[in-house]
């Protein structure tokens, strides 16, 4: 029997119908997307949760002054480096202070005590940190200051934040930056008093967290920076 032909224009016969014997190439079928999503919908970008020391250091440089000599903070506590409070003379003597005059000679215990006493004598005068330079003769090398900060961040603040927030490890990096800044500025105990903020953070409601994070006694720019970090933690489409 003759092959069937596909009808062509009136009066003409079309070419023989092609028979698929399994060897013809087929256009690939579209890959299915997640359930409830069209195949063409892009997957959401992965959430970045890493908080590196380089990022922490950059944030601290932006918000905390690096003071190499002893000074009194706003509560008249002896402090050095990046806001590192020294509770006792022994704590100061445990650090590798050097003579400012040459930048290398190790300070003696007596010289550290002399700076300690000079600084403490200014309690109640509300001096700026930099003004204590003329009252002291010793400095703590910059590398030592940053190493001291890193030790406190790793051993005190990050463990404290993990204890305060059960979901810390899954928080987006911008939210972690905001919370660490608040913890270092306020202390972990001070941050713990922001109960409304903590409630929003535990629900990963970063928009409401931004509205509840304002601190008193710091520059407006730092408060604004913190709010931006929380809002940056929100999903791109604004959904929680």
Descriptive report:
InterPro entries: Lysozyme-like_dom_sf, Lysozyme_dom_sf. GO terms for molecular function: lysozyme activity. The chain is built from 9 helices and 7 strands. The chain has about 240 residues and is mainly α. The chain has 2 domains: about 50-150, no CATH class; about 165-235, no CATH class. Mean pLDDT is about 85; it is low at about 10-15 and about 15-30.
Distance between the ends? 68 Å
- Helix-strand sequence: EEHEEEHEHEHHHHHH
Helix content: 40-55%
Secondary structure category: mainly alpha
Number of domains: 2
Count the helices. How many? 9
Largest sheet: 3 strands, antiparallel
Q: So what's the overall shape? A: elongated
Quick summary:
This protein is mainly alpha-helical. The protein is built from 9 helices and 7 strands; from the N terminus they run E-E-H-E-E-E-H-E-H-E-H-H-H-H-H-H.
Descriptive keywords:
lysozyme activity; mainly alpha; 7 strands; three-stranded antiparallel β-sheet; 9 helices; bacteriolytic enzyme
Task: Give the SSE map.
Elements: E1 5-7, E2 13-16, H1 53-63, E3 67-72, E4 78-81, E5 84-85, H2 89-93, E6 98-99, H3 109-120, E7 138-139, H4 142-164, H5 173-186, H6 188-191, H7 195-202, H8 206-211, H9 220-232
Antiparallel strand pairs: 1-2, 3-4, 4-5, 6-7
Helix pairs in contact: 5-9
Keywords: Antimicrobial, Bacteriolytic enzyme
GO molecular function: lysozyme activity
Region (Disordered): 1-43
